[in-house]
Amino acid sequence: MGLVGLVVVAGPGCGGDDPPAMTADAGQDGGEDGGEDGGEDVAVDVAPDVPLVFEPVGVVINEVAAAGDPSDWFELYNGTPETLELASWRMTDNLVDRPRGEPFMEGTQLRPGAYLKVTVDDDYPGFKLGGDEALAVLDPTGAVVAEVDWDEGQSPLGGSYGRIPDLTGPFKVLVGPTPGAPNADNPGGAECGNDVEEVGETCDDGNHLPGDGCSPLCQVEVVPVCGNDVEEVGEECDDGGVEPGDGCDGRCRTEWPVGDVVINEVLSASDVEDDWIELLNRTDATIDLGGWVITDSDPTHVWLIPSPMAVQAHSYQVIQRGADGFDFGLGGADAMYLYDAEGGTVDRCFWEEGEAAVGTTWARQPDGEGPFATSAGPSPGAPNP
Hints:
The chain is an all-beta fold. Helices cover 0% and strands 26% of the residues.
């Protein structure tokens, strides 16, 4: 289970059989997490003669580590004069799909002027932080009091995404994470992403994109080579080949197994009609897709399929932008994900710029079961040519 809390004041250990309440206290820096995997931290109350000092900035998300080692985490700061009982507060990584969020751990407190590290994983609170995602914290009334979103590469492995100046500034990529303590700017005054190679940087190409030879921390990186039989950073697999159909596709992504319902064809570029998606029911029974979810590479683009949407056995369902609330377009280089009503991944596909150009689609070949490739032309509601 993930943990909430920091050791913030030195003191004797807590005795007794009951675990201590998770507390973040003011006026001191955060201590180290216990154990290799960041085991539970013990909180000790501030002595009565230690004044509570806080910056009056409200409750803020101050830092995010979406590629944490070993776990993802984010940091809250309490800039109010009140101790907050966070068990009645909630957090979410998707305000559209999960607007109520998940509760903080029972007994979690956040004192005035305190920093609180919140570790997140599949056990607690039930989600991790993605490389291109958002995070929001809700108060007991359900109001969003703090939120942040970041793009791929802005919260890289070994670094974090934090406010500079601490608590009040905009977010930027940080080389040195500071969970439970004020954020520190990058060493040597270097600003990664400004296209100027400064002290502490081995490169700076003017962006924070990974995989282009210069990492989001402005260090020279090895660009992965798909098909060299070496699984490198940015690859899900590499079996030494680039042919589809063997479990590892031509982009070194794990090939998704063909299931009962598949994404069969995608139109993402047209000068005569809106984007559309074609799904295929490969079974001998009617399937109601109501309550299923479709997203693309942008986590804010979420479409809940209305109920009922019954698809007959061995039949196609074409869903065009503008129908039943499906209101986001598909990019020239994009992805498509299909989830069932329980949130399980049913199918997914990816395409690069030019692979689904005007006059073509990105389609399974052979129809319904093969890997994706550029089609000879659209075939909505019919087998792919």
